[in-house]
Amino acid sequence: MMGAHSIRGRALLLSTDAKLTPEQIIEAYGERWSIESMFNQLKLSWGLKEAWQQTRQTLHRWVHLTLVGYGLIQLLGYLDDQTVRQLCCHSPWRKDNPTTAGQIRKGLLLIFHHVPVRQWWNRKCRQFEPPNWRGSEQDAAISV
């Protein structure tokens, strides 16, 4: 369908619904933008662009964990709490340090960037083996 544009002149708009007017096609595309930005964040910020080379089970686990993390950070953005606001104080040039999901994510990255999670994967037995968080090996033996 050809549409007229006030600045660019004529434009070709493609749609699977031939009954839509050019204005309706543009409005429908505009409604997609919120989901497109979510996919962009998942690919670029959450590492899903690397997921294509994984097994199906690994991909399912990665997607679930990634989306849980994404959802929790989105929810933290709505929580009116001093601790959450402190996570956003890493950029002193930002006016009023807005509490957004992106700022919360950056604050959490600053706290947890030193945690070597990738090193906890044991390739030989294909299991995730985090270190003993309780302290010494003796403490772990006592609790079992």
What would you say this structure looks like, in words?
By secondary structure, the chain is mainly alpha-helical. 49% of the residues lie in helices and 8% in strands. The chain is built from 6 helices and 4 strands, in the order ββαααααββα. It has helices at residues 22-31, 33-44, 56-78, 82-87, 101-112, 137-143, and strands at 2-5, 9-12, 121-122, 127-128. The strands form 2 sheets. Strands 1-2 form a two-stranded antiparallel sheet. A hairpin with a 3-residue loop joins strand 1 and strand 2. Helix 3 crosses helix 5 (101-112). It is flat. The N and C termini lie far apart (70 Å). Residues 138-144 have low confidence and may be disordered.
Rounded to the nearest angstrom, the distance between the terminal CA atoms is 70 Å
Q: Output the strand order for the largest sheet.
A: 1-2
Runs in which pLDDT lies below 50 for 5 or more consecutive residues are 138-144
- Let me know the number of strands: 4
What composes the largest sheet? 2 strands, antiparallel
Q: What is the 3D form? A: flat
The arrangement of helices and strands along the chain is EEHHHHHEEH
**How large is the radius of gyration?**
23 Å
Portion of residues in beta strands equals 5-15%
Percent helix range: 40-55%
Mean pLDDT: 78
